[in-house]
Specification:
single chain, 17-stranded parallel β-sheet, binds calcium ion
């Protein structure tokens, strides 16, 4: 009786089993990925609940279909997955990572940890010939910690690691929710917790919420865009602290944005903390044509080694910013510094901005056609101060203004 029941149960369960294997170890992960690489109808990979998986090699997805990975709180230990070599200038190079997605298919990963990766944690390489819709990457409840190099690297650059200007026609849309990127970039210089490289046509559109990006050796997060296209980033309830310590000769920032070529930076930060970073707290650089538009609400930065908040706009285009409920303390340079050069203007509004104990000025805003020009040639920009409190800043508590009408 028992035997026949068992057989019945077995035959029932085998007919009810999904086609895809449940991933519970390296072998089943590799075979699930391999199956998805060969069969476009496979669009989901499911991990066993709380699976502990030690990888001995990178696991690579190369399919073109959209893929959803349900981690079910699995932990992938990447400490033996791949290796990197060190160049003469002490930079590192590798094609490896614990998980690699060579695809422009939409990727969604939920409830997964990737720890102690020997190289990078999670990498998405956008194929150079990708066309059509932008790649969409959704990460929900993801922890990437202790990677030797980047924690998360989304790479549209045809060349490795920020070298070169060619990339795909498409851009990158990324959503990160309820996630941690901590303790990455501890094996070589200049590796960030989160790094997005976008080249050629296309924008970076990033929405990051309820996420911790702390204690990474390079920048906490760097968004790097060149060619046509914008960087449009929204951060809500995010911590970006204690980053940038690995390379003592060239310390790194909390949140670094580099935009080049035509296109804007549009940054909206709400409830964001940027403390104790070893270079700037926020370091936003816009160049080529385009504006730097930043709206900061309830943002605080303390003990950043260089400026707490720095915004630089070069070439054609303007800085437009609203800083509301922004507190910057104990910066190693100016507390907040806005610098606009080339054609264009600054239009800034400060409401409930408190800056204290900076090593230089508390607040500085300058609008040059050419930096350090002997005479003003452009019409004044606008600085609207609703409520600005400067105290105990080493170079004085007057705002440092060049060519802005204060009202
Ligand atoms: Ca592109
Ligand atoms: Ca651009
Ligand atoms: Ca630009
Ligand atoms: Ca300009």
């Amino acid at each position: 009786m028992k035997k026949s029941l068992f057989i019945l149960a077995l035959s029932l369960s085998s007919t009810l089993l999904p086609a895809a294997t449940v991933v519970s170890d390296e072998k089943t992960l590799i075979s699930a990925m391999h199956a998805a690489n060969l069969d476009q109808s496979i669009t989901e990979i499911i991990f066993a609940k709380n699976a502990q998986i030690k990888l001995l090699q990178p696991v690579i997805y190369s399919g073109s279909q959209n893929l959803s990975i349900r981690g079910n709180n699995a932990v992938i230990d990447g400490s033996s997955a791949g290796s990197f070599s060190i160049n003469k200038d002490l930079t590192a190079i590798t094609a490896d990572a614990s998980l690699i997605f060579n695809s422009a298919g939409a990727l969604k990963i939920t409830d997964l940890s990737i720890i102690n990766s020997a190289t990078r944690g999670l990498v998405v390489n956008i194929p150079e010939d990708a066309t059509g819709a932008d790649v969409s990457i959704i990460l929900h409840n993801i922890n990437i910690t202790g990677s030797a190099l980047y924690g998360l690297h989304i790479d549209d650059n045809s060349h490795e690691f920020d070298d070169g200007q060619t990339g795909s026609e498409i851009g990158i849309n990324i959503v990160i929710e309820n996630s941690h990127f901590t303790g990455n970039g501890v094996g070589a210089i200049d590796f960030d917790g989160v790094r997005v490289d976008e080249r050629s046509q296309g924008s970076i559109v990033a929405f990051i919420t309820n996420t911790v990006i702390d204690g990474n050796g390079g920048d906490g997060i760097e968004l790097d865009e060149a060619g046509n296209g914008d960087i449009e980033v929204t951060m809500i309830d995010v911590s970006v602290s204690n980053n940038g310590f690995y390379n003592q000769q060239d310390l790194d920032d909390g949140f670094d944005i580099d935009e080049a070529g035509s296109g804007d930076i549009i940054a909206t930060l709400i409830n964001v903390v940027v403390d104790n970073n070893l270079d700037e707290g926020l370091d936003f650089d816009e160049s080529g044509s385009g504006d730097l538009i930043a709206k900061l609400y309830n943002v605080s930065g303390a003990n950043n080694r260089d400026e707490g908040i720095k915004m630089d706009e070069e070439d054609d285009g303007n800085i437009r910013t609203i800083l509301s409920r922004v507190t910057v303390n104990s910066s190693g340079d100016d507390g907040i510094q806005l610098t606009e050069t080339g054609k264009g203007f600054v239009n800034a509004t400060l409401s409930q901005v408190n800056i204290s104990d900076s090593a230089k000025l508390g607040f500085k805003a300058q609008m040059w056609l050419v930096e350090d020009e002997p005479t003003v040639t452009e019409q004044q920009g606008s600085l609207q101060i609703l409520d600005l409190n400067l105290s105990n800043n080493a170079k004085g508590d007057a705002a440092g203004i060049y060519n802005l009408e204060v009202h």
